[in-house]
Write a structure and sequence with these properties.
Length: 284
């Protein structure tokens, strides 16, 4: 789209243009970390050092003023930091598998740090979640959610990782619009985890699910690289078979309204990593 390309061009015109978008974009979901990611993908950490502080400024100001939803504000700060790390990994390795793992590790680190130093925030959010669950329980069946600090910390890490991953995808798309038209789709469709990484992640995800509701967001966090790899496989199949965007759109809708579909896609990712489904499709 022309408007999106114009925004990306404005960001890349210079340091101050990127800083403006990074700062003002904090009030629009994903825009600010995506701007930081675009600068990082193109110019590396040295350039990001001038832009990232502007992306963090609104959130830091809100925390300093004691504004509401401080845990979400903290998450927005962690998202920017995670994008900086993941963009550098992607820039150096040109591997979406490595970038997805970097995002996951960043999310885990954010959750662990919050558990260690954010006891007050965790307690307040856990209490709020408990109140919400109590209200919902009077109207419908109990949800698979645990109002515990462990659950909230895992959910925080998952939010950070998902936000950073979406921002990084947008950053790479913007970069492709400017410098490699059409390259983003073909690059994404090539995403495939190594068999060792896929099996290790699958084992940890399964172990997390078996531990109960407390560990569910931690399992969802660890599943993100596999989920992304599975989606890349489905995009590859759609491109090869000419299935079109409607088929892919139905899959994404299914991810939102039918949670077991996530496990099916994760299973496809593990299978593709071990037996290379793509090569079998190509052979046919």
């Amino acid at each position: 789209p022309d408007a999106v390309k114009a925004l990306a061009e404005f960001i890349m015109r210079g340091r101050w243009q990127a800083a403006i978008v990074a700062c003002l974009g904090s009030f629009v979901p994903i825009v600010s970390p995506a701007a930081v990611g675009l600068v990082g993908l193109r110019h590396g950490v040295s350039a990001v050092a001038y832009v990232a502080p502007w992306a963090l400024l609104p959130s830091l100001a809100m925390l300093a003023s004691g504004g509401p939803d401080s845990l979400l504000t903290t998450a927005s700060i962690a998202v920017v930091i995670a994008v900086v790390i993941a963009a550098e990994v992607l820039r150096r390795s040109a591997s979406w598998a490595s970038a997805a793992i970097a995002v996951t590790v960043a999310g885990l680190a954010a959750a662990i740090v919050l558990s260690a130093v954010g006891a007050a925030q965790l307690a307040a959010t856990t209490a709020l979640l408990a109140e919400m669950l109590a209200e919902v329980a009077t109207e419908q069946a109990p949800l698979p959610i645990a109002a515990t600090p462990l659950f909230v910390a895992g959910l925080f890490g998952w939010i950070v990782a998902v936000g950073a991953l979406v921002a990084l995808l947008v950053s790479r798309w913007w970069q492709a619009l400017l410098y490699n038209p059409g390259g983003f789709g073909s690059e994404f469709r090539q995403l495939r985890m190594s068999s060792a990484s896929a099996i290790a992640l699958a084992v940890m995800v399964l172990a997390g699910w078996l531990q109960g509701a407390d560990y569910r967001p931690w399992a969802e966090l660890l599943s993100l690289p596999l989920l992304l790899s599975g989606l890349a496989l489905l995009h590859h199949i759609a491109a090869v078979r000419g299935l079109g965007t409607i088929w892919l759109g139905m899959i994404y809708v299914g991810l939102v309204i039918f949670s077991p579909l996530n496990m099916v896609i994760i299973g496809l990712a593990v299978a593709d990593s071990t037996i290379n489904i793509r090569s079998r499709i190509a052979a046919r």
